[in-house]
């Protein structure tokens, strides 16, 4: 069906008496049948602090839509708390939830022929899941971020959830006692909101603001502040107007928008997961985007913000310093942002940023001036070599020298790796290999926050490398390389590594290399057998059969068209 006919079908459908009868039962009156029906995808959940304040925002948005002349229809979608499931078997469901969220929003909106959708989410997969659905449906849409958590405090320092993971490593290394370990646990997460550093949730919300699918300033607001509720109300009003004007996601999610999103991610020091998610969204909307595009943009965009995990500040500090609009204006002023890109407001990026100064305020140091960036180039490097012929992704900020050659320490799972680190069996100079954790092999591509945080806590972050066909949390930093593709489960070279093999990680040369002669690798490859599936029924088994390589965004609908 042509996209521009969709709202006509809605109006025609509800005029028929059988359709109208059921809508009357949910509150429609005679005058409401001519109003646009707008879905409100509500990811409220008490599973995680990221989402526990979202229902209040949904109700505010719902009321604002009614006042603006629409008929909002609220429905639920799911979330998985990465921070709670981290390091467990449950983490295998995290990336899977991105597709479940997308499928659920698409199913509800298309099944009920809705004229538009406002999605509200907080935890990591809420944003890309919602955006994939919006890209598929191409009905007017806006994303409302549930907001960031405020930092915890202990002994004069700001805490995030990553502080708790790192404290475990510090405790195991004998650097802190049990009292301090428990104190950090108690104070790390003081209330509602998504993890407070420039981790995955705040990275994706920042990207969507830069791409024009969320209102400016909305991505760094604290979940518990009144301005977040006001922003949800304004988002609802903007969406109703977008429905009237038929401003569609595929008019906004252009190649220019993706380049804007990547540029902002580089400038704020965002999560490696953004690479995976933007590749998936671009696939959905039909915009050509590859790993090489991230590397190209990395080469020209500096890191401007001093944010956790490797920096000092959290998202609420960034908000007070001028937020994502200030970062965007700096990029625009230096020719690194497409100012003519459209936003859901109907205005262009340049129009929205017109009154923002080209340099940040002098009374803050969260956002550096253009002349004094944190790093001259972006922090997300794409590495290739015989260990990653399709590519791998490394976050290279906060590392003194992102180059190491050392002996492989091979683990077939995250749990086995973490056990070795906590038992002090990993030494400076080692290169840890965690494999069979990829999209198919895991399945689900778990994040390795527990082992990487344990390495940081043990003081090994600059001296031990870690590579995996799994993912990393946005809270991860250190000499780490993820998304190694092809993954072990499909015969990738990472599955051929043996204990003690020499491995080189060289971010400067963008190299990930197994230093073993090719004839030896061929002999190993001839003996390699694919592992039996870890799951033979249920959602994980289905996911493993459908999912593509991480180098393509780990999408589940590749080749279906």
Q: What would your notes on this structure say?
A:
The chain is α/β, with parallel strands linked by helices and 561 residues long. The chain has 21 helices and 14 strands. Strands 7-8-12-11-10-9-13-14 form an eight-stranded mixed sheet. The protein has a four-stranded parallel sheet with strand order 2-1-3-4, with helices on both faces. A two-stranded antiparallel sheet has the order 5-6. Strand 5 (152-154) and strand 6 form a beta hairpin. Helix 3 (54-67) crosses helix 10 (226-245) and helix 9 (200-210) crosses helix 12. It is globular and about 75 Å long.
User: How far is the first residue's CA from the last residue's CA?
Assistant: 15 Å
**Mean model confidence by pLDDT:** 94
User: How much strand content do the residues show?
Assistant: 5-15%
Number of domains: 2
Overall body shape: globular
> How many β-strand stretches?
14
Biggest sheet statistics: 8 strands, mixed
Strand arrangement in the largest pleated sheet = 7-8-12-11-10-9-13-14
Number of helices: 21
Q: Supply the helix-strand structural class.
A: alpha/beta
How would you describe the oligomerization state of the chains in this entry?
A: single chain
The radius of gyration computed from the alpha-carbon positions, rounded to a whole number of angstroms, is: 23 Å
User: pLDDT under 50 segments (min length 5)?
Assistant: 1-15
> What is the helix content?
25-40%
């Amino acid at each position: 069906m042509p996209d521009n006919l969709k709202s006509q079908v809605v109006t025609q459908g509800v005029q028929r008496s059988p359709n109208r009868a059921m809508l009357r039962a949910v509150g429609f009156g005679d005058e409401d049948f001519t109003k646009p029906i707008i879905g409100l995808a509500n990811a409220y959940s008490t599973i995680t602090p990221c989402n526990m304040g979202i229902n209040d925002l949904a109700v505010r948005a719902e009321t604002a839509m009614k006042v603006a002349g629409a008929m909002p229809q609220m429905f639920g979608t799911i979330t998985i708390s990465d921070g709670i499931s981290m390091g467990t078997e449950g983490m295998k469901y995290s990336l899977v939830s991105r597709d479940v969220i997308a499928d659920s929003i698409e199913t509800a909106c298309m099944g009920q022929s809705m004229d538009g959708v406002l999605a509200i989410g907080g935890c990591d997969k809420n944003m890309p899941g919602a955006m994939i659905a919006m890209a598929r449906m191409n009905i007017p849409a806006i994303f409302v971020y549930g907001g960031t958590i405020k930092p915890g405090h202990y002994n004069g320092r700001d805490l995030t959830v990553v502080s708790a993971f790192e404290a475990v490593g510090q405790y195991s290394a004998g650097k802190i006692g049990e009292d301090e370990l428990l104190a950090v646990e108690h104070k790390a997460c003081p209330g509602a909101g998504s993890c407070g550093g420039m981790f995955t949730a705040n990275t994706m919300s920042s990207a969507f603001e830069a791409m024009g699918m969320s209102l400016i300033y909305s991505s760094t607001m604290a979940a518990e502040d009144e301005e977040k509720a006001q922003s949800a109300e304004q988002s609802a009003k903007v969406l109703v107007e977008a429905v009237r004007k038929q401003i569609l996601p595929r008019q906004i999610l252009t190649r220019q928008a993706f380049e804007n999103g990547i540029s902002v991610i580089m400038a704020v020091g965002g999560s490696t997961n953004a690479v995976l998610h933007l590749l998936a969204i671009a696939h959905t909307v039909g915009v050509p985007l590859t790993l090489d595009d991230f590397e190209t943009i990395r080469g020209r965009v500096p890191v401007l913000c001093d944010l956790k995990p490797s920096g000092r500040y959290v998202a609420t500090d960034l908000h007070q310093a001028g937020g994502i609009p200030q970062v965007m204006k700096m990029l625009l002023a230096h020719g690194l942002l497409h100012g003519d890109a459209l936003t859901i407001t109907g205005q262009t990026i340049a129009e929205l940023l017109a009154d923002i100064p080209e340099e940040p305020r002098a009374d803050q140091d969260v956002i550096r001036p253009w002349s004094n960036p944190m790093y001259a180039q972006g922090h997300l490097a794409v590495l290739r070599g015989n260990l990653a012929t399709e590519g791998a992704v490394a976050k290279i900020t906060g590392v003194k020298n992102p180059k190491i050659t050392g002996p492989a320490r091979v683990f077939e799972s995250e749990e086995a790796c973490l056990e070795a680190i906590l038992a002090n069996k990993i030494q400076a100079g080692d290169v840890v290999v965690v494999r069979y954790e990829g999209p198919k092999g895991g399945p689900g591509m778990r994040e390795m926050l527990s082992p990487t945080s344990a390495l940081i806590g043990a003081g090994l972050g600059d001296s031990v490398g870690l590579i995996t066909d799994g993912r990393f949390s946005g809270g991860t930093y250190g000499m780490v390389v993820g998304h190694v593709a092809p993954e072990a489960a499909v015969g990738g070279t990472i599955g051929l590594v043996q204990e003690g093999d020499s491995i080189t990680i060289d971010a400067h040369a963008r190299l990930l290399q197994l230093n073993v002669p090719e004839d030896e690798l061929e002999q190993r490859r001839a003996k390699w057998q694919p592992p039996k599936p870890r799951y033979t029924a249920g959602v994980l088994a289905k996911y493993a059969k459908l999912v593509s390589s991480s180098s393509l965004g780990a999408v589940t609908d590749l080749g279906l068209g």
